Amino acid sequence: RRLVVLVSGSGTNLQALLDEIERVGAETYGARIVAVGADRDGIEGLARAERAGLPTFVCRVKDYAAREEWDAALAEAVAAHEPDLVVSAGFMKIVGKEFLARFGGRFVNTHPALLPSFPGAHGVRDALAYGAKVTGCTVHFVDDGVDTGPIIAQGVVEIRDEDDESALHERIKDVERRLLVEVVGRLARNGHRIEGRKVVIP
Ligand code: GRF
Questions:
Q1: 94 annotated among ligand-binding-site residues
Q2: Is the confidence metric ipTM above 0.85 for this complex?
């Protein structure tokens, strides 16, 4: 299977996928990353892709007259690599109709909270501020909402009294990286179908 990964930041989730595919081999894992895309330049996630010798592309919203044009351009850039599965690993933009028309149902996102709790761009901070005792991460298919698509897997992380946002986010990312690697591998090897809000991986 062919994976395109979208990033916006440090790319440690991308790195976890790269390392696992390197460790077990693309045949055994069931997939290889064919390209990495981002919504901005100069991020560590793109540097990681370049170090791995992967093609990269950047689609910046400000380079387009309208959001819809950015969305169509992003879809084109992804489609050029003929992915079977697209993975958002810390990609911080909401995709639109065009992108979902082409990749909906095979576009996976990872979110650093236990959806439906704490969706959006500050899930770690929101769980901490709320005084939750546990939080975690969610791997889900992207639908036309924000972090509302069918859930594939979740991992629980305790919140400690001494936690600040970055300490908690690092602990979440340890679980998140393992969960994403495991889920993407299963999807790649076994395929999947979505029945309403249920994801079935045979
Ligand atoms: C991840 O926790 C992701 O869920 C969130 O931002 C973080 C990205 O981390 N949206 P990285 O860029 O993969 O290191």
A1: yes
A2: yes
Residue 161 in tokens? 């009294």
Distance from the alpha carbon of residue 64 to the mean position of ligand 1, in angstroms? 25
> How much is the pLDDT for 28?
98
User: Treating both helix axes as pointing N-terminal to C-terminal, what angle do 12-24 and 44-51 enclose, rounded to 10 degrees?
Assistant: 20
Q: Strands of the chain (E only): list them.
A: 2-7, 32-38, 56-58, 85-88, 107-111, 134-141, 151-158, 193-195, 198-200
pLDDT tens by residue, 73-119:
999 999 999 999 999 999 999 999 999 999 999 999 999 999 999 99
Distance 90 CA to ligand 1 centre (A): 4
How would you class 117 by CB atoms within 10 Å of its CB: exposed for 0-12, middle for 13-18, buried for 19 or more?
A: middle
Among the listed residues 3, 91, 79, 82, the one whose alpha carbon sits nearest the alpha carbon of residue 39: 91
Structure tokens at 8: 């916006």
Of 83, 71, 77, nearest to 58 by C-alpha is 77
- Name the residue at shortest CA distance from atom 14 of ligand 1: 12
- 111 has catalytic annotation: yes
Read off the pLDDT of residues 4-60 as tens digits, 9 standing for 90 and up.
999 999 999 999 999 999 999 999 999 999 999 999 999 999 999 999 999 999 999
Q: What global pTM score does this model have? A: 0.95
- Nearest atom in ligand 1 to the alpha carbon of residue 14 is 13
177/155 Cα distance (integer angstroms): 10
